[in-house]
Design brief:
The structure holds 2 protein chains of 2 kinds.
Chain A (H helix, E strand, L loop, with lengths): L4 E3 L2 E4 L5 E6 L6 E7 L6 E7 L2 E4 L8 E4 L6 E5 L8 E8 L10 E2 L3 E5 L1
Parallel strand pairs in A: 2-11
Antiparallel strand pairs in A: 1-3, 3-8, 4-5, 4-9, 5-6, 7-8, 9-10, 9-11
Chain B lengths: L3 E2 L5 E4 L4 E7 L4 E9 L6 E6 L3 E5 L2 E6 L4 E6 L8 E9 L5 E3 L3 E6 L1
Parallel strand pairs in B: 2-11
Antiparallel strand pairs in B: 1-3, 3-8, 4-5, 4-9, 6-7, 7-8, 9-10, 9-11
Classes of the chains: A mainly beta, B mainly beta.
């Protein structure tokens, strides 16, 4: 597609519910990143994929967070048993480049998660 | 110590002035440096990237990198009200893919 597409744009969940956030990157982009952005903060790295391989998941805050990209294109970020502190905007970004140092990121519009 | 440090601001400048945004990073192995702009309620968008020491100019924007001081800056000349946004500094460590962002500096350009 022309840009990075994320869905849903807004999600309200009750504490304890599971949520799934989808990212459709720019066609042909090798690298895909997930970030969490709380209000007034910068984006915090969650995880990184190169094609279907999850090469870095050091930013996932707990084992309730899980991400996959099974066919190297669309990615899903799943949050189990949501907590209020999970409320944030979840940003997906993709990059054409696979080489370290060349990751110019194009971001999607984000998915705003509110946990009540 | 945070990997990427920025003053959250707000930084207020009058229209037409030069806005100077600063960023320091902790890892000497960092090799790539980026400035992203984020309007309120929107996603970050790339303004510039810089890899080498010195200055890089693109229109009204100049990025400056000093690896010895672990310091990156962004100058915006002839600031316009439309430049009012949060400016995010981001770095990549050598050998890694992860892009690490600072908290961002909120810039307000006063007409």
């Amino acid at each position: 597609g022309a840009g990075v597409s994320q869905s849903p744009r807004y999600k309200v969940a009750k504490r304890g519910q599971d949520v799934a956030l989808r990212c459709d990157p720019i066609s042909g982009h090798v690298s895909l990143f997930w970030y969490q952005q709380a209000l007034g903060q910068g984006p915090e790295f969650l995880t990184y994929f190169q094609n279907e391989a999850q090469l870095d998941k050091s930013g996932l805050p707990s084992d309730r967070f899980f991400a996959e990209r099974p066919e190297g294109s669309v990615s899903t970020l799943k949050i189990q048993r949501t907590q209020q502190e999970d409320s944030a905007v979840y940003l997906c970004a993709s990059s054409q480049d696979r080489y370290s140092g060349a990751n110019v990121l194009t971001f999607g519009a984000g998915s705003r998660l509110t946990v009540l | 110590q945070k990997e990427v440090e920025q003053n959250s601001g707000p930084l207020s400048v009058p229209e037409g002035a030069i806005a100077s945004l600063n960023c320091t990073y902790s890892d000497r192995g960092s090799q790539s440096f980026f400035w992203y702009r984020q309007y309120s309620g929107k996603s970050p968008e790339l303004i510039m990237f810089i890899y080498s020491n010195g200055d890089k100019e693109d229109g009204r924007f100049t990025a400056q990198l000093n690896k010895a001081s672990q310091y990156v800056s962004l100058l915006i000349r002839d600031s316009q009200p439309s430049d009012s946004a949060t400016y995010l500094c981001a770095v990549i460590r050598g050998g890694y893919q992860k892009v690490t962002f600072g908290i961002g500096t909120k810039l307000q350009v006063i007409p």
